[in-house]
Specification:
alpha+beta; Alpha-Beta Plaits; 30% helix; globular
Length: 100
């Protein structure tokens, strides 16, 4: 993100699963969140949905950029699906964040 390991960092990601995969995607997002929250330096990992069911929104905050990278590496190592796949109808929109 910014290379500064002293700054709190985070992300907001909008995911667009096909309607028939919406609930499955929400479940997968919760499993990824569980792995992230178990990682050292993760402050929060939450799963939201837009009221119209158009998108699943994931939000995470971490003590540092290093903690963010390590948490996602742990999720990938445990087999958590963190990349785009055919169950999504359009690419994810991922917005990195830094504390101010």
């Amino acid at each position: 993100m910014n290379g500064d390991s002293e700054m709190t960092v985070g992300f907001v990601a909008f995911h667009y699963p096909h309607p028939e995969h919406f609930e499955d995607f929400v479940g997968r997002a919760h499993r990824v969140g569980d792995v992230l929250r178990a990682s050292s330096g993760c402050l929060s990992a939450d799963v939201w949905a837009t009221p119209d069911g158009d998108a699943v929104v994931t939000i995470g905050t971490f003590e540092s950029d290093d903690a963010h990278r390590e948490a996602f590496a742990a999720a990938r190592d445990l087999g958590a699906v963190v990349g785009f796949d055919e169950r999504e109808r359009k690419p994810r929109q991922i917005h990195p964040l830094v504390s101010k």
